[in-house]
TrEMBL record:
Keywords: Isomerase. Belongs to the isocitrate lyase/PEP mutase superfamily. PEP mutase family. This is phosphoenolpyruvate mutase. It comes from Paludibacterium paludis. The keyword Iron-sulfur does not apply. InterPro entries: ICL/PEPM, PEnolPyrv_PMutase_core, Pyrv/PenolPyrv_kinase-like_dom, Pyrv_kinase-like_dom_sf. NCBIfam families: PEP_mutase (TIGR02320). Coiled coil: none annotated. Gene3D superfamilies: Phosphoenolpyruvate-binding domains. GO terms for molecular function: phosphoenolpyruvate mutase activity. Its EC number is 5.4.2.9. Pfam families: PEP_mutase.
Length: 322
């Protein structure tokens, strides 16, 4: 057996392990989970983060493991609680229509059955005083970080760009929001990450860098740079410039539109957190749509069985079911 065949067999063996054994969890305390993101950032150069909009999607993400061509284990380091997928899962628009308490209930249910740290999409953060109160709530239940974007007014999804009316908050006002959030923290473990929308709104690279530097100076624990372009050049340029100024400040990206770039390329460019922000929901939607249509088409479910997880696998997936 050659090396490639050996690695492939090892990967298959890992995937075919008893689901009950792979999904076993001893649980984790609130304090341990809250501090886990900072700890792992101190141990690894770059983290993989997967969107989770429900306990079952989080369980699947946490327990997906593969071996790479060098025999190294690959897994997701944390979850992303997306306002887009949380809203879509409930049939509501992605306009901050879903209140924070509803999202916290969902996160708490995810925490009941998983152990990974979680980063929350905080949208605009709302009014600064409300943001400060929400920081306390997130910190209390064990969320590790919140990412808050520098836009104002009724929230619109960033991938619309200037196709819809969107406005950026002033630097001074957004820095004030960051400071209030940091002042509200009880522990040193929680992180507030500032999301810069300058490239989304075509305000230019200089504006993006000016804002990022101001936000770090105001106390932000990290910076997320967002882009809706189909290629990664502008986020790579931003990473190079930002890391020359702040080499130790965590840098985050969400390669949704420029999906062709590989994780290791982003890692080499200086990114510390790569978020796959909506893929669990998008993939499940497509599967459900196909299965629903197939059952109507064939008048039975037989043709759809190959697209579905078996009942026995579902029963083994959930600890304590049998």
């Amino acid at each position: 057996m050659d090396t490639k065949e050996g690695v492939a067999c090892a990967a298959i063996a890992l995937l075919e392990m008893s689901m009950g054994e792979r999904f076993k969890s001893n649980g984790v305390t609130t304090e341990h989970r809250r501090g886990a993101l900072k700890r792992v950032l101190g141990q690894r150069k770059c983290l993989r983060v997967m969107e989770a909009h429900s306990p079952i999607s989080a369980l699947l993400a946490e327990n997906t493991q593969l071996l790479d061509e060098n025999g190294e284990s690959l897994a997701y380091d944390a979850f992303w609680s997306s306002s887009l997928t949380d809203s879509t899962e409930r049939g509501k628009p992605d306009t901050e229509a879903l209140d924070i308490q509803s999202r916290l209930l969902n996160i708490n249910e995810i925490f009941d059955v998983t152990t990974r740290p979680l980063i929350m999409d905080g949208d605009t953060g709302g009014q600064p005083e409300h943001f400060a109160m929400n920081v306390r709530s997130l910190e209390r239940i064990g969320v590790s970080a919140v990412i808050v974007e520098d836009k104002t007014g009724l929230k619109k999804n960033s991938l619309f760009g200037n196709e819809v009316p969107q406005s950026q908050e002033s630097i001074d006002n957004f820095c004030h929001k960051i400071r209030l959030g940091k002042d509200a923290q009880i522990t040193d473990e929680f992180m507030i990450i500032a999301r810069v929308e300058s490239l989304i709104l075509e305000a230019g690279m200089d504006d993006a860098l000016t804002r990022a530097c101001a936000y770090v100076d105001a106390g932000a624990d990290g910076i997320m740079i967002h882009s809706r372009r189909k290629t990664p050049e502008e986020v790579l340029e931003f990473a190079g410039e930002f890391k020359m100024r702040y080499p130790h400040v965590p840098l985050v990206c969400v390669p949704t539109s420029y999906a062709q770039i590989r994780f290791d390329e982003l890692e080499r460019a200086g990114f510390n957190i790569v978020i796959y922000a909506n893929h669990m929901l998008r993939s499940s939607y497509l599967a459900m749509q196909q299965v629903a249509a197939d059952i109507l088409k064939h008048g039975r479910s037989f043709e759809s069985e190959a697209k579905c997880l078996s009942i026995s696998e579902i029963l083994e997936l959930i600890p304590g079911t049998h």
